[in-house]
Design brief:
Radius of gyration of chain B: 17 Å
Strand order of the largest sheet of chain A: 3-4-8-5-7-6
Oligomer: heterodimer
Amino acid sequence: MEETPFSIVGTARQFSLAANIGLGRLAMLIWTALRILWHEVFRYLGAVFGLGLALFLVLLQSGFYFGFRRDITVVQDSFAADLWITPKALLTFDYAVAFDDAAYWKALNIPGIAQAARVICDLALWRIPDTGGKESVQVLGMDFESGLRFDFGVPAPNAPALLRADGHIFVDAADATRLGVKQLGQEAEIRGRRVRVVGFMRGKKLFNTSCLVVTDLNNARRLLNVTPHHVSFVALRCAPGADPAKIAERLRQVIPEHDVLTSRELHNLTQHYWQSCTGIGPILFLSAGLAVLVGFFTVLLTFYLLTIQKLAVLAALKALGGSTGELALLLGTQAALVFLAGAALASGAVVLAQVALTRANISVIISAGTWATAFGLIALACAVACLPSLARIRRLEPADAFRA
Amino acid sequence: MNALDPILKMEGIEKTFAEPTGPLRVLVGLSLAVHAGEVVLLQGPSGSGKTTLLQIAGALLRADAGTVHLAGVEVNQASDARRTVVRPRHLGFVFQHFHLVDALSVRENVLLGLRLKRQPVEARRVLDVLDLLGMAGKADKLPRDLSGGEKQRAAFARALAPRPDVLLADEPTSQLDAHAAESLADLLRDAVRCLNVAALIATHDVRLHKVADRILTLRDGRLHE
């Protein structure tokens, strides 16, 4: 009867000893991986920089791409509109030809439409006040009285009233220097007409290098010499609970001479047009892909060469009792540390580059999802790049220690 | 297993390698027994099969025929998994080129050896073995800071710390100068006796003769006293 507690204690001791040995072995292997990495730090630096460069380029290229995407449709996406009446067979938001605003009046009579705003949009030249130089601007005018919201990037509850006055405009704060605007109230000229900057917007950078100028509908008509009663678009906001698809269908019957698009359709149309015209998406993704390959091959070559150089020692460790799994853990720990060092390097560089590029008014958008995807992609490339080394370790026989 | 039984017993060992020129018989019905605390030197010309014999004794290579008993356990016919378990439990290896982990100190190399053999790590035990091999004062040195003789003593310490039943060494003094080889030989004899290990050492080095209990010559696939 007395043996039972004794054997339980004995078993527990044995289990505890085994657990200690197991944990100790794990800790020793990780320690060994760290020591090897530190001991041969200059050999591993190539892999760290290769991975870091790959991650840096993937993040930055993705950031440029998403920044470019945002900039392509930044104007139309600023409208709180559900539907758009556009010229027939429109190629892109930026190429709208003004049409008679009769469609606007017809739309107002369609049930389910809560707000309808006439919009004018076209390019013009801006004369810089001090130098007399010219800059390209995209003038956007809308009738703010409609109540349809436009996002200026800053709170601007008094914008409709401010912009109603003759020649009053908003420009993006980031464009102020380029346009020669030093302060609010500054005057300049668009197509020979005097304008006064009465507010600054934020985050309205255009992809086509022009600067955005927002004003009231009538101001825009004057600045752009648009025929009275003509508009580029009509932006529509549906009443709560109304089905935009059904309203769009009804509008198509009422105004068959125009296209009626949902905001998503107009967004996609513009995105598709500019991305296919410029080829920017494939170019950026191709260079990001090449960056992944750079990281992949750097890690592959570094780890494979270092594994080959250490084959005899690794075989000796196998002869001493090390399993393939334990040697793989050794390599895996080193690869993980190289990845973490490369990732830290790249993260720091990307943050610095993002600050510098944002200051230079270049759009770089790197979301949490982009960070996670890029990290996952490079980690995967790093893991795959280690496979040949792992395969070599797996094939390694303890007897190989005698051959070196 | 009786205390007087050999700790390593090989009987009727046959090994033939397929060479481009035809089959090459390396070991021909070879038998060998080594007892605990005994140092057996294995000599013979290059290519005579000394390393092959060590590999078979170390359960690293299978003989085509015959049996190999390590501490009473037959390993030649055993499964790979069984051999993988038996090898670290009963054997210690020392290689011609040391094969120490360059990034680890002498002490850490010995600790790694113990860990890989799934043995509890006792600082006293590690120090005792290092002391036995005259390496206690160099325990925290990296291999790059050691002479060839010291590296080989560290490799012996790594092999002996887990208290193996059988120590297998392949040309352990081939990289050492005369003084280092003499010094290693003396230390090795003391260590083997003290730890009661059976040592089978393949060597060309006559300087090791003084530590041997038996010297066997491998010729034409057979052992000769």
